[in-house]
Amino acid sequence: MSNEKSTDEQKKIVEVKNVATDTKKVVDIIIPEEEEKVDNIIKLSQTYNFEGEHISEVDLTNLENLNALQMQDIEKLYRKIAKSASSTPELTIEYAMATASKLTDLPLEFYQRISGKDITKIKNRIINFLYSED
Predict the structure, then answer these.
(1) Are residues 17 and 45 in the same domain?
(2) 55, 86, 108, 117: least CB-packed within 10 angstroms?
């Protein structure tokens, strides 16, 4: 890798303080841009056969284009399927299932039948998106 900063890379500077000598050293950390992007395609732990279709991943790239009207629809669906109220519905499995079903071509019934590990991966990706500051 070249010592010059590529336009495709983001440079982060970190100050490191040596407590013993009370001196500071600046360290450049280069993170390639492609490593910094979050992948919205969730690889499932197994391939599911759902209505004749083999599904091994869930594409949540539409998270990036989610608008307020879609979020209202997600909340309506969440309220229909949630067994109890939550003060933070976006942190629940039910909210993740409602969101994923609205963003993909897969119905709610698919998400209700996948493994706990897989729905948790989907839930965590949705939560990370909702709480990110980008």
Answers:
(1) no
(2) 117
